[in-house]
Design a protein that fits this description.
disordered C terminus; about 900 residues; five-stranded parallel β-sheet; rod-shaped; 29 helices; alpha/beta
């Protein structure tokens, strides 16, 4: 069946529906308002008719009452002759005038002509009756005579009555009063009186009939208006129902269908379509939705294709990045390996008897090797910075100590050129947290360039604190020289990579032009672009390079070194050296033997495993890159051997790229040294771990339920109670905050630093026979390797309780030594510092109050700073000065 044309949904739209609804409601409103007004008029007419009927009845009764009153008064006057009745009569006629008032009131109604005639007739009859009554009153006056004591009003009434003419028949009888009574009581008088009320009654009857008809018409109109309003209300309800049906049919139903269509679409399906329906707007919406869906599907398909291309490009970029990283690592290894051999043999050559000329040759070759090593490092650093892979550690260090290190590295070169190298640093924070390696790299680049480009005068390395609060500080570093300076046109170009002021500069002074570019980018990266490397220079008058860096606050003990290097390497120690390169193996073996060590070598990982299974070495040094088994796998395998659980494993690697340290620590190694080997750095590292072996011999943890098995530790030390108490006090002082540092590193997102601390704690806790702490540290270390930290709370609790147990055990040592004299305290402190013995710090802590009370404040503060920095040379000199001895105090900074 075909739908009517008016139901064609697309013919309807919101504007048409709104217009139809508005017009319909407007018509209904007009009808309701008109009918309501008409009904009000009918009600008013009906009420008016009722009021008029009541008023007419009241007026007729009042007219009858007035006529009866006049008749009664005139008859009384005629019978009694009392003048009072005459006065009452004329008061009614002339003053009250009720009869005239009623007639005038009736004349005020909008009366039909017939009713007006009846009213006029009643008035004429009333006037005729008054004339008859006046004749009767005159006859009474003629009979009685006029009273002499009448007042003015009465006299006026009397004059009016006397002036009224009489008819001839009225005086026919001499008894005037009798004639008057006969006039008032005869049939003619009664007939005249009734003739007054007859038209009045006819008037009332006809008026009542007319008003009744009008009231009936008004009532009918009111009923009709009410019915009309009820009809309009019913029509309005039907209209609202129709509009609701239209809205549901044309709008709500399409939306429901669209929603159902969208809900039925599977989440994985991309094809979403709706069937357009409803009024014009929903129909257009459905069509537009389908077009948008089609466009979106095309866009999504294009995006999928673009993502596929991007993923392919990303994979290729990652592949290229991995290839680049592998290439850099391989090139670093290939370049540093032979360079390490050269520098190693140069060091060994310098240890042999050679003449001055040969020694100069060795120094020149060392300088060339250092230059080549610096070039390799700069290229690697520049590559990392360009890739945005440069990272900054948050390590506690002393800025003053770092500045001294930079000065010591470059001062010799400046002296050889006849230049001065001065250090100016006042009021620097004692310790800060930042990246000392990057800061040192920037300062060495700047100060090295200053020494290189200065022929006369010298270089000043300065630092000052511009801001300091509880959260950290801002330090400004500057390197000022008296060299050749930089032209204004070249000042922006020299910061670009591989750029120098001019070609003549490169030929005369050498260099690659990478140093300043690396320094500038490190400064910018460290401050997120807040600070920059600044240059002030005039050609021929030198230059000043300056920059600022922000550092976090650090506690006083946070940057103290854990162990001091001894003056001489312990003799008689046997180490295992693993390297697959025969030349490197020979050179490194000879280098280690020059330190007084016994060296066993292994050319492969399998050979190293055979030797470690057969013998326990003091330290194992292993190369990272080996063909059959690399250093990481070898380290993990060695750690699985029970006897090597706490033996230091040191990595030898030529890979100077990021991630090597973290991978080495994750594999179970204690530390690593980059090639080419610097004999002083290698010797210092070995001294550190041999010192650990001397102070806390490697022992396997023994079973036990307590936090600290002091009996086993004491037995391991041969019953040396004092040494065990000193070791406990040192552990509490040096490592008492390690649990807090672990939490801080994990909170700040540096799990590698936390793993390094835990790795050291495993060995240290095992050496002190603190088995529960060792086990929970190892468990947390394993969890961090797998990305969890479930044992963190247990580790913190056990660590705090273990520290308290060690502190209680070490307390007798403090009380026992507290009574020593000042001279004994200073002598013992001086001897311990001269021997570079870590017990010097424990001795100082035991007698801090004695020294505070005896020494001048400034000298005591300097001694505290020297002990906290583990600057034993400075501490020995200060203690010698305090006890009256001789000692040279090294340069102090800030």
């Amino acid at each position: 069946m075909r739908k009517p044309a008016w139901l064609a949904v697309r013919r309807w739209n919101s504007h048409g529906i709104l217009a139809f609804s508005f017009l319909s409601f407007l018509v209904v409103l007009c009808i309701i308002l008109g009918s309501n007004r008409y009904m009000n008029d009918c009600v008013q007419r009906e009420a008016q008719a009722k009021d008029e009927r009541a008023a007419l009845a009241a007026l007729g009764q009042e007219l009858a009452d007035a006529s009866d009153y006049l008749t009664d008064e005139v008859r009384k006057y005629a019978i009694t002759g009392e003048i009072e009745h005459l006065k009452n009569y004329w008061d009614e006629v002339c003053v009250a005038r009720r009869r005239d008032t009623v007639i005038h009131t009736l004349e005020g109604f909008a009366l039909p002509e017939e009713e007006s005639k009846l009213l006029a007739q009643a008035k004429r009859n009333s006037d005729l009756l008054i004339d008859t009554e006046t004749r009767a009153m005159k006859l009474v006056l003629l009979a009685q005579g006029q009273p002499a004591d009448a007042d003015k009003t009465v006299r006026t009434y009397l004059e009016r009555v006397q002036a009224f003419p009489l008819e001839p028949l009225d005086t026919a009888d001499a008894d005037f009063q009798k004639t008057a009574r006969s006039l008032l009581y005869d049939a003619a008088y009664e007939r005249a009186k009734s003739e007054i009320m007859t038209p009045i009654k006819q008037f009332q009857q006809r008026t009542a009939e007319r008003l009744a008809r009008e009231g009936a018409l008004a009532t009918g109109g009111r009923i009709a208006a009410s019915r009309l309003q009820i009809g309009c209300l019913a029509f309005s309800l039907l209209l609202i129902a129709g509009l609701l049906w239209l809205l549901a049919r044309l709008y709500i139903l399409p939306l429901t269908n669209y929603t159902a269509a969208l809900s039925d679409t599977s989440q994985d399906g991309m094809l979403v379509r709706v069937t357009p329906c409803g009024a014009a707007e929903p129909y257009r919406f459905g069509r537009m939705f389908n077009r948008l869906c089609a466009a979106l599907e095309r866009e999504l398909e294009n995006r999928r294709q673009a993502e596929a291309v991007m993923r392919q490009a990303r994979d290729e970029a990652d592949k290229a990045s991995r290839a680049k990283s592998e290439f850099l690592a391989q090139m670093s290894h290939e370049l540093r390996t032979p360079l390490g051999t050269v520098t190693g043999y140069l060091y060994l050559l310098e240890q042999t008897p050679i003449d001055d000329q040969q020694r100069r040759y060795c120094r020149s070759m060392h300088a060339a090797a250092d230059t080549l090593l610096g070039l390799i490092s700069n290229i690697l650093d520049f590559s990392k910075i360009e890739a945005g892979a440069v990272t900054f550690e948050q390590t506690a260090f002393a800025p003053a100590e770092l500045l001294r290190e930079v000065r010591d590295m470059l001062e010799n070169g400046a002296t050889q050129k006849g230049l001065y190298f001065r250090l100016q640093a006042d009021h620097l924070p004692e310790q800060v947290r930042g990246d000392p390696m990057r800061l040192r790299q920037v300062l060495i680049n700047l100060a090295g360039n200053a020494v290189k480009f200065t022929e006369r005068g010298g270089v000043i390395l300065s630092a000052q604190c511009e801001r300091q609060d509880e959260n950290g500080c801002t330090l400004r570093f500057a390197v000022t020289d008296t060299g050749i300076g930089v032209k204004p046109a070249d000042q922006s170009r020299i910061f670009e990579p591989f750029e120098q002021a001019n070609a003549g500069t490169s030929r005369r002074y050498g260099g690659t032009g990478l140093g300043l570019g690396i320094a500038r980018r490190i400064v910018q990266a460290a401050s997120d672009g807040a600070y920059a490397l600044e240059l002030e220079s005039e050609p021929g008058h030198g230059a000043e390079f300056s920059f600022r860096m922000d550092f976090r606050a650090a506690k006083a003990q946070a940057c103290a070194q854990e162990w001091m290097h001894a003056r001489a390497m312990p003799t008689g120690k046997t180490v295992l050296l693993v390297d697959d390169n025969e030349i490197n193996l020979t050179m490194e073996r000879e280098l280690l033997e020059s330190f007084g060590l016994h060296v066993d070598t292994a050319a492969s990982g399998w050979e190293a495993l055979q030797k470690t299974n057969a013998q326990r070495y003091g330290i194992v040094l292993l190369d990272i890159r080996m063909p059959d088994m690399d250093g990481y796998e070898l380290a993990r395998t060695i750690r699985g051997i029970a006897a090597y659980r706490t033996v230091p494993l040191l990595a030898l690697t030529a890979d100077a790229v990021d991630g090597v340290r973290e991978k080495a620590l994750a594999a179970g190694m204690n530390d690593y040294v980059t090639k080419p080997l610097r004999p002083e750095a290698l010797q210092g590292l070995l001294q550190r771990y041999f010192r650990l072996a001397v102070d806390a011999p490697e022992v396997l943890a023994v079973p036990g339920g307590s936090l600290f098995h002091w009996e086993h530790a004491l037995r391991t030390l041969g019953g040396d109670q004092a040494q065990l108490e000193a070791l406990c006090a040192r552990f509490v002082r040096v490592h008492g905050k390690e649990a807090e540092y672990v939490r801080i590193h994990l909170r700040d997102g540096h799990p590698a630093n936390a793993r390094a601390i835990l790795h050291d704690l495993v060995g240290l806790a095992g050496n002190l026979c603190c088995d529960p702490l060792m086990e929970v540290s190892r468990a947390l270390l394993d969890e961090l390797h797998h990305g969890s930290m479930d044992s963190l709370e247990r580790f913190t609790d056990l660590f705090d309780r273990t520290i308290e147990a060690l502190r209680r055990y070490a307390a007798p040592d403090v009380r026992k030594e507290g009574a020593a004299s000042l001279e004994q305290v200073l002598c013992r402190l001086h001897d311990l510092c001269m021997d570079y013995d870590l017990a010097a710090a424990d001795w100082f802590e035991a007698h801090r109050e004695t020294l505070r009370a005896a020494l001048p404040y400034e000298q005591f503060v300097q001694l505290v700073a020297a002990i906290e920095r583990y600057d034993f040379e400075q501490a020995a000199a200060l203690s010698a000065d305090a006890k009256g001895g001789n000692g040279n105090v090294s340069d102090s900074v800030g």
